[in-house]
Amino acid sequence: NERLNTSSYVNVVFEKEEQEVALMGLGINLADQNVYPNSWQIHNDCLNMVAKLWNCPYHKEEFEKYGNVFPGAGTVGSTEACLLAGIALKKRWEAWFKEKHEGKSPMAMGKKPNLVISTLYQAAWEKLFRYMDIEPRLIKGTLAEFKLNPKDVIPEIDECTIGVVCIMGNHYGGQYDPVQEIAKALEKLNTEKGYQVGIHVDAASGGFIAPFQPNLPPWDFRVPQVLSISASGHKFGQSCAGTGWVVWRQREGLAAHIAINVTYLGGSTDSYTLNFSRPATGVYVQYYKFLRLGKAGYQSLCDNMMGVAKIIRDGIKAMKGKKTGKPLFRLLDDGDTHCLPVVSAMINPDLGIKYDDIDFQNMLATTHWYVSGYRLGVHDPNTEE
After folding, report:
1. Which Gene Ontology BP terms does the record give (predicted)?
2. What span, in angstroms and rounded, lies between the C-alpha atoms of 254 and 91?
């Protein structure tokens, strides 16, 4: 039963009409923009809605010049979106570095780019590090706080830093990195050192949750240091597997580094993706969901999921050991408001139980309930490990 999978974050439950829409998309190759102009318009309409949701700046001249669409792309999941954003950051840094060093490239000077990110990153970033030869500057969180701290970020930055990744909803505990606080620290550092380090927001999970949480500190393009944002359409965006989105603040110096002009399909079009030929399925389903739900529908979904998470969280909090009276679990998530609608906990180490969380996960799997189990790379302030 797909409804018993609480681990993968991927939407796999669809209405009948939604399935029909998905099948329609199988016969459309989105790479053929001139052959399927209406399908490509649906892609652009979705992209514009996502960009507006994240408060992307509107540059009238640029917007109209490039077909009345914000700088960005629909992707095959957030992994591709993260890779594209990372490549754009790298190319932007290379251009800045050459200008600073009188035309000398980083490679000629033996310099290697680095990227600052929490150890709670998703696998997409490990691919970027390996494929693009980028040094990861990893910052460990703590069990008390699964998020980046500006005071830990700044010492890791130097003239070879291409950017800082802020995670809006890590999959370990659902916490949001403090984008605005990190941005303020970056602004001060950039002014002092003459750097140009910006932020990519990896909102794989939070991109379609955070916009519907009132009183959340700014995390999107309202923050000037945010250069790009990516998200999975197939998680809380409610589309089908293989749907993702990336949006840049502007084309010049960012999205322009990604664009490849293609003419051999007839006409002249720009491609912003790593994948070329791909079905329109994800875009079609995303468009269906945007029209079907609207902002009010997504708000209702967010409120409902946060409410369900609270019920589960409160239930786990109330569980006590029969002999000790101590809590059975130690809650690790960020509570009931400014976070993902997830519950994260570990077996209380004070109980001295012989089995661990992974054993517990495996036991649950025998009942066909699937939950995530992680061995966390975080610092425990209680044990100093």
Report:
1. L-glutamate catabolic process
2. 8
